[in-house]
Design a protein that fits this description.
261 residues; alpha/beta; TIM Barrel; 15% strand; globular; binds 3-methyl-2-oxobutanoic acid
Length: 261
């Protein structure tokens, strides 16, 4: 594939054979999508973390589809080479038919694939979506739409371990092209990764996955009020914004020329 070629779900799936690690980030708006795409990030997720880090909700469960759609369109307007994946908000895929409607709305808004949370219990829904030619990124492990803000490591006891292995097999068999593995014990995440033919994209699940995904705001220090302990921020944008705003405030107060000249 040439450097300028559009990233597709099939490209993501085939990283399993090439062994190239997949780097994914969330994006919720046009400039961020453009910047991340220019930097070469191949997968942009319009995640339902939008609810918390952009819209100020306490967790992801309150996000409505009509709030999500404009953000999907904004990211799509950047015309990224990256694959644009959009989360199905909580409560919008309770049945396979609901999921199909939600998937169609997200695709019409500009998404090229959708993500939804759940393993075995979502396999019928994933199948329905893939039959409708809506590519699905699955999501197993910690499921924030169920767990709310209660973040914890999963997969340490034998029951959770068996459940997660079954979830991973189920989403693969249902036709998902990749699977996010969130907050899963690192050894189990590596075992799941070895057992699947589709790539795993980890978050807080160690280095044994086929790729990694992070919330953009965590990566660049733009949501300083809460930071998951597995994230090593690469920038401190909250500090940069505080500094710029304070400098501007001081300039305005002393009536300094805001525009030079
Ligand atoms: O919404 C989100 O941010 C996610 C994470 C897995 C990145 O689903």
């Amino acid at each position: 594939m040439s450097d300028s070629a559009k990233i597709t779900p099939e490209w993501v799936r085939s990283r399993k054979e090439t062994g190239e690690k997949i780097a994914a980030l969330t994006a919720y708006d046009y400039p961020t999508a453009r910047l991340l795409d220019e930097a070469g990030i191949p997968v942009l997720l319009v995640g339902d973390s939008l609810a918390m880090v952009v819209l100020g909700y306490p967790d992801t469960t309150s996000l409505r589809l009509d709030e999500m759609l404009p953000h999907v369109s904004a990211v799509a307007r950047a015309k990224p080479k990256a694959l644009v994946v959009a989360d199905c908000p909580a409560g919008t895929y309770s049945t396979p038919d609901d999921a199909r409607q939600t998937g169609k709305a997200l695709i019409a808004a500009g998404a090229e694939a959708v993500k939804l949370e759940g393993g075995v219990e979502q396999s019928r829904t994933i199948r329905r979506l893939t039959e409708a030619r809506i590519p699905v990124m699955a999501h197993i492990g910690l499921l924030p739409q169920l767990a709310g803000r209660r973040f914890r490591k999963v997969g340490r006891g034998p029951e959770e371990r068996e459940k997660l292995l079954a979830d991973a097999r189920a989403v693969e068999e249902a036709g998902a092209f990749s699977v996010v593995v969130e907050a899963v014990d690192a050894r189990l995440a590596a075992e799941i990764t070895r057992s699947l033919r589709i790539p795993t994209i980890g978050i807080g699940s160690g280095e044994g996955c086929d790729g990694q995904i992070l919330v953009f705001h965590d990566l660049v220090g733009l949501f300083p009020w809460f930071r998951p302990n597995f994230v090593q921020p690469k920038a401190d944008l909250a500090r940069a914004i505080h500094a710029a705003a304070r400098e501007y405030l001081a300039e305005v107060r002393r009536n300094a020329p805001v525009v030079p000249g």
